[in-house]
Give the backbone structure.
Amino acid sequence: MLIKMENITKTYGSLVANDSVNLTLDKGEILAVVGENGAGKSTLMKILYGLEPMNSGRILINDREVEFRSPHDAIAHGIGMVQQHFMLFPPFTAAENIVYAHEPRKGMVFDRRKARQRTLELSRQYGLRIDPDAKVSQCPVGLQQRIEILKVLHQGVDIIIFDEPSAVLTPQEIDDLLQTIRDLKAKGKSIILITHKLNEVMATADRVMVMRSGSVVKEMACKDTSIDEMSFLMVGHQIRPREIEAVEKGRRCLDVRDLVLMGQGSKRVLDSLSLHVDEGEIVGIAGVSGNGQSELIQCITGLRRLSSGQVFIGDADVTNLSASQIRQSGCACIPEDRYLWGSASEATLAENCIMAHYNGNEKLMKRGIFRSKGVAEYAETMMKAYDVRYLSDRQEMHELSGGNAQKLIVAREMFQDSPLLLAAEPTRGIDIGAIDYIHGKLLDKRASGGSVLLISSELSEILELSDRIYVIYEGRIAGEFTRQSAKAEQIGLLMVGGKLND
Amino acid sequence: MNSLFVAAVINSTLRYSTPILFAALGSLYCTRCNVFNVALEGQMLAASFAAIVTNYFTHSVILSTMAAIGAGMLVALLVAVFQISLGVRDMVVGTSINLLVQSATSFLMQVIFGTRGTIQGNGMVALPKLSLKIGSLSFVNRMFESLSILDYLGYITAILVFLYLFKTVRGFHLRSVGISFEAAKSLGVKSQRIQFNSILVSGALCALGGLAQCMGMVTVFVENMTAGRGFIAMGAASMAQAHPIAAIFSSLFFGATISMSKTLQTYINSYFTESFPYFCTVIAMTIFGIIMIIRNKRKGIQKSA
């Protein structure tokens, strides 16, 4: 037994994050730890990696008890972690980042030549191609993750923890990553994979451990289980494939005509882009992130001025109006980055809940003064309705886990009850239960005659929900499909700039 | 214009830039690990005071130097404890410590010497002088006439700081803390200790600046004698983009403005000339800011709004 964690218990105040959890890992094995947000899997890994102290329990490595006070201790015992949020220094080169904290040196001097060599060596040994001199800031996300993996390998560890590694990757990058994980296993590394994407578990893991609200629900070999069983165990109830009913289309709700946005120099970030969404319709925009989706949202919501073109919401021309005017014209927006655009991380939950709600609502604000009782009740209704797990509405936003923060933002925008909803990556980084719930809400909106423009890098999400699908590539609409005509392969091809042959 | 006059102006530029250079190095050393040290002024002034008091009683350059460094680092320790260990805002810590040192030195002057204004005395020793003489070139000789060893040491220190920051592993870690405190910490680098220590180093560097000011050209302590040099140094460091070698040139620029203001005093009302260096600081920072914006635009770096 390589690692044995026994009766690990960890509490934060009154919240029990881990309740006497046991975990074992054998040499050369891939163990997947799955569970919803807040199930306690990240906490467990933080304890194993020395980032958090535990209240009770013990950790054995090769049958010897160890105590980790910092990641340093964990690394010294051969445990490395590829974190969900990359721990990289953007202005430094790949090689500098890879050898960080374990630099080759000549006396006091940092031996950069050897660092380069070492990088190339590792790169060859594990088949992970990288340019050692590339600045991290210029590497796409997939490469950045590769740098993270190489960094962990440079530390000479035998056990690698991957924390939600695919959350930020494109479909192609995910395939590469899964291959890398299997290769690492073949080279004798032992791996713990934290995820809530169950198809990744089936594709890589030997064994899976399902966690729910701080405890292990079940542990089993992957060959003895199925995605359905795992999701049942994770969520605690069955998730049924959804029946989507046909809805009568209504009038035009969003109309974008010949939208052009100039970038640096003469480059067009958005190029003569036209699209429309009708009432009772969910329209998906499929694309690899970075092809103009963010800018499109910013143009529609009034955060950026269009270079030319027009945007209509209903009959009203909202081109280049201010963000608040556009909101009042009936457009709510779930932004793609929940911390940068979606919330104020140092404000309280209640304050985040009532953003853009308090104007004209006498229960929340009267003559410019907030009514704290009304605010608290409103926030509670909102958060209860979307099952946000929180301790108090006075908590600050950044204290919520990512999934709960996302649910709060979705709740706030849904409560706007506006004719049009822009939903950008509405389910990024959240668990199946919550995804299912949010999908349901989007469909409810459609059923009640609302319009949704759904932007997602998760193709399966687009395919499942959308009545019509646009594919965006380099700021242009590369193709349009209806629900009936949509084929994943064709869309995937257009997403990477390919052409259809017929 | 008389060429020897030009040489004399260059000479005084070199002298005036020394305290700024040391303090600028102290400033950028902190900036590199993402600490904004506003107390440069206080660190310099405390060092000047300690140096002159020690000098007055012992007539020893070495003891005065040690006292200066000790005092500078002591003030820096105060800054570090409040700013790093207790997490008080940089502006609050810096401003209050600057004011504290200013009034504490005045107070101690009253207690020790029973006077206000200046401390000077017979038998106080100045820093050793080193006049660079090249043959009989009177221009060059005038340029380097009776510069103190600190005037030379400033440039050497700048090079040492450069080598430390960019060539050693420790310097690499220091800069990494400046880029991402959390990342450095999670990778087992003691981020907080690095920040703490860097403030102490800046205390020592500012102390040398304070020493150059009170025992370089003249050997005297005047109440609030730093007179905003610490803030000018901050400007010099930021104009140099926290690069030690570039800081040499930005410090020389600000040294030149001070030298100019002193020279012009003979011709123009001193109320105007006194403000000249600060005026130049604002102008220079504005021009510099505009250039940076243009350059970033060209490079196509645009922060997301």
Notes: The radius of gyration of chain B is 20 Å.
